[in-house]
Predict the 3D structure of the following.
Amino acid sequence: MGPPLVSALKASAAQNAASFHFPGHNRGHAAPSSLTKLIGLKPFIHDLPELPELDNLFSPEGPILEAQKLAAKLFGSQETWFLVGGTTCGIQAAIMATCSPGEHIILPRNSHISAISAMVLSGAIPKYIIPEHNCNWDIAGGITPSQELEMEGQKPAAVFVISPTYHGICSNLTEISQLCHSYGIPVIVDEAHGAHLGFHPQMPHSALKQGADLVVQSTHKVLCSFTQSSMLHMSGNVVDREKICRSLQTLQSTSPSYLLLASLDAARAQLSENPETIFNKAMKLATEAKILIKKIPDDILYGNHGIVSELVGSQSITFAFNLGTCKEHVQRLVSGLQELSACSLQIETTETKVKDRGHAPFTDISMSLNPRDAFFANKRKVGIRESLGKVCGELICPYPPGIPVMIPGEIITERALDYLLGVRRKGVVVTGASDPLLSS
Ligand SMILES: Cc1ncc(COP(=O)(O)O)c(C=O)c1O
């Protein structure tokens, strides 16, 4: 038996139906040729709507329910929901389901933009933790349990942790969960980059295994489903499942793509086939590449030699290794780095290194309005330098990795302005500013 939702999609598409339903390409009959030349007809033939035999994402009773149950079993949750709006939508649902307007949520200031927009949606008030910053790599560190619960007076409605971070830094979720649970506070984990955790002896345990209540994974990032497809897992009984369902119904499209949903089912099945060994090759390649790259004396990559990295930071470059990584690509990466290192004429002095270092501008932030009130407040446009000391009205976020530098309601600081202008000068895409040039 194949994966239930994949099988249902296959059977449904195979019917000789006279179709009078959406989508308008009509099972591929009217598919635009520019795209079929690129990807063929099959994606269109299988791009079906909520037909009775395909179940309903918001009230699953058939193959979607079955597929979600199989995912719950594999990942170790009590209940799993398939998402078509990425982990973004799962994080928003998790925060909406746990925090009512005016309630507090503890979260790191370097959270992904989805956690910040979740506060606009839910009306939750942030209590930020500033994770330690590793200046050598210019990346944020993890969170410690004592940082987590440094709250004055009011009990927070939820604690939100990113583990692993975009750069793979994990926090001790077992300790954090134990501490939070002793106060009856649910722990939400952004595990966007950790759907693989627990599937190899050298990997840390998953967030669910460590006691988290709600965990959101970008199945599409580390596992092999289509972009935009993710999973939300729930464990224990601290969180009300009905609130999760209501939040997801509010946030997700009423026309979820069955290609995305089936790809989640297929990615789960792929992992279920040999969960003990599936990551062996990728782990071996990553370890080998690490050893080889460490031997290269120059640590700066100056250009792109056909090797596409995930993220270029000011002090580090992120290369993602996954199930599709092959030896030939690793060899290309290593020899590309070697060649760059050998050819490089620009030898950086310690002085310029220090000057170029991009510190995260989060240590001196202060909030004048909560994110929701600031989001809905009237805005005024001022020159960029004139904005110093004023209350920010926009959610300004360099992408990737999608961590907002300015959040609605925060006082604009000189460091934040300098940081934003600096990353923009380096060519980073900055989203959320109504003036994309950042002159105002
Ligand atoms: C740490 C983190 N959380 C959440 C997300 C959102 O995930 P998605 O792209 O699946 O919506 C991302 C995406 O880059 C991320 O890096």
In short: The CA atoms of residues 298 and 341 lie 5 Å apart. Residues 347-357 have pLDDT under 50 and may be disordered. The chain has 16 helices and 13 strands. The longest helix spans residues 327-343.
